């Protein structure tokens, strides 16, 4: 029995030795560089010769060494992680943004953490508090808790924690947004020139007194063209394809149905597109449509859409967080991404409105 116990102990010690994680002392002996130089090589912000950093990182790969995240955070006083807080990933636009944010974070030798709120302010609050406690150097947040998480925002603002509003601003905090106003005005002018006068708007329920640039463009351009704004043609609701299809069903039953629809985004527009074809009608023969975001589905369906550079937005957003992290006295900024209109086959002259077409 004693012999067996000794054998088990020897095996455990042998196993422990085999599984031992290489330490900075091992890398020091392997490379000949000092521990302080090795630590700086793993810190993207530290000053070290490029050749030295390359040699140390290559040697680390060779022996399987990686700097412990906790040690790295203590030395640099940062986590090298950015938080991205979105409502969901059902919208392909969000999926594209995650890809671009992740690529930009990795380009900067940092990491991206993703959180989903599902439009629940309490979930948003939990993520913000947890990440701001040291898990992330800053957060990009598609705000859903306005009015309910105001105290959380104020606390982070008071601490000067890097927080950036994505598509929706918070007073006193930097915001990055896409300004689709001019692009939408151009698209609506094109519809008017083609002869459209019954133009509907399908969008999201506005948060407070902050209507999106798409809705402002819709109202302003109709007024500029002396077209009376018909409130029955303005449908606001949720942000999904079902909402778009439902809006179409309501609009097509009107005695004087619209000949064109401006959709807040492509998710709503693709829902409308599906509804139109399910009704036995087609685009643009029976209805013209334009929208926003230029997601792959809209491209495949041939929907005229406003686009922006997702990769550029990711670069601008993380650069803004880094600016706030590096300078606690930095003033909040509004960053607006440029957009352009991509014309496709979903816009044409007003189609036939023979009696009974809306009953098909």
Report on this model:
Keywords: DNA-binding, Transcription, Transcription regulation. This is LacI family DNA-binding transcriptional regulator. By secondary structure, this protein is an alpha/beta fold. Helix content is 47%, strand content 15%. The chain has 14 helices and 12 strands. The protein has a 6-stranded parallel sheet, sandwiched between helices. α6 crosses α14. The longest helix is centred in the first third of the chain and has 17 residues. It is elongated.
Global shape: elongated
Rg, alpha carbons: 27 Å
Q: What sequence of helices (H) and strands (E) makes up the elements? A: HHHHHEHEHEHEEHEHEHEHEHEHEE
Could you report the average pLDDT, rounded to the nearest whole number?
86
Count of runs of 4 or more consecutive helical residues: 14
Classify the helix fraction into a percent range.
40-55%
Structural class: alpha/beta
Organism: Rubellicoccus peritrichatus
Biased composition (Basic and acidic residues): 1-11
GO molecular function, one term: transcription cis-regulatory region binding
Keywords: DNA-binding, Transcription, Transcription regulation
């Amino acid at each position: 029995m004693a012999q067996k116990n000794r054998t088990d102990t020897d095996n455990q010690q042998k196993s422990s030795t085999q599984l031992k994680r290489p330490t900075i002392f091992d890398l020091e002996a392997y490379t000949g560089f000092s521990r302080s130089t090795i630590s700086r090589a793993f810190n993207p912000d530290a000053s070290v010769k490029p050749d030295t950093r390359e040699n140390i990182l290559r040697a680390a790969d060779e022996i399987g060494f990686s700097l412990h995240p906790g040690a790295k955070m203590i030395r640099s006083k940062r986590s090298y992680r950015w938080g991205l807080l979105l409502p969901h990933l059902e919208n392909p636009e969000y999926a594209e943004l995650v890809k671009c944010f992740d690529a930009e974070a990795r380009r900067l030798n940092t990491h991206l953490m993703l959180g989903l709120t599902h439009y629940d302010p309490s979930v948003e609050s939990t993520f913000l508090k947890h990440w701001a406690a040291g898990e992330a150097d800053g957060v990009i947040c598609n705000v859903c808790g306005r009015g309910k998480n105001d105290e959380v925002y104020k606390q982070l603002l008071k601490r000067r924690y890097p927080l950036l509003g994505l598509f929706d601003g918070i007073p006193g905090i930097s915001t990055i947004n896409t300004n689709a106003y001019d692009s939408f005005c151009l698209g609506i002018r094109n519809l008017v020139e083609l002869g459209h006068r019954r133009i509907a708007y399908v969008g999201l329920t506005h948060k407070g007194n902050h209507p999106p640039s798409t809705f402002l463009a819709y109202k302003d351009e109709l007024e500029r063209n002396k077209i009376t704004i018909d409130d029955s043609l303005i449908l606001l609701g949720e942000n999904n394809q079902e909402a778009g299809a439902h809006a179409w069903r309501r609009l097509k039953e009107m005695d004087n149905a619209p000949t064109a629809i401006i959709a807040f985004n492509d998710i709503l527009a693709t829902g409308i597109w599906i509804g139109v074809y399910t009704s036995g009608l087609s685009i643009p023969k029976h209805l013209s449509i334009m929208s926003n975001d230029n997601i792959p589905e809209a491209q495949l369906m041939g929907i005229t859409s406003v686009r922006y550079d997702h990769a550029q937005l990711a670069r601008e957003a993380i650069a803004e967080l880094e600016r706030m992290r590096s300078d606690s006295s930095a003033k909040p900024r509004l960053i607006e991404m440029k957009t352009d209109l991509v014309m496709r086959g979903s816009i044409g002259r007003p189609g036939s409105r023979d009696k009974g077409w809306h009953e098909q």
